[in-house]
Amino acid sequence: MNTITLTQDALSDIDYAYQYYIEHVSASTADRLLSEIENNLKQIKEFADANPKHLVHEGNIVYKKHLNKFKYTIFYLIQDEIIVFALLHQSRNIENLIAKRL
Question: Which CATH number covers residue 66?
Fold first, then answer.
């Protein structure tokens, strides 16, 4: 089984999304978001290279995993471990944000 590490940026993204749903939607929806993120991280851990490749940046292959019930995407690298570096809303300028984080 692979090890997953979440960068500080990814943790901040998750916290921001959670707080947004708490403040603007409901606590139960925010909890469902966290649950879906956790489930998707388990799937990534089990089948990391089964997800689509998003792009190649400076020799790194960036993989993506869309959440099913929320308009967010998890972005990660596969190296000695799986490095999750972003959880981004699909309306964001994803390429620019990824370039800044890699």
Answer: 3.30.2310.20
Whole-number pLDDT of residue 93:
80
For the chain, the domain total comes to 1
How many C-beta neighbours within 10 Å does residue 51 have? 18
Tell me the pLDDT tens digit for each residue of 38-82. Answer: 999 999 999 988 887 877 777 889 999 999 999 999 999 999 999
Q: Find tokens 């749903």 and name the residue.
A: 21
| Rounded Cα–Cα distance for residues 1 and 22 (Å) | 33
pTM of the predicted model as reported, rounded to 2 decimal places: 0.90
- Domain span at residue 72 reads 4-101
User: What's the alpha-carbon Rg for the chain, to the nearest Å?
Assistant: 13
| Separation CA 96–CA 8 (nearest Å) | 18
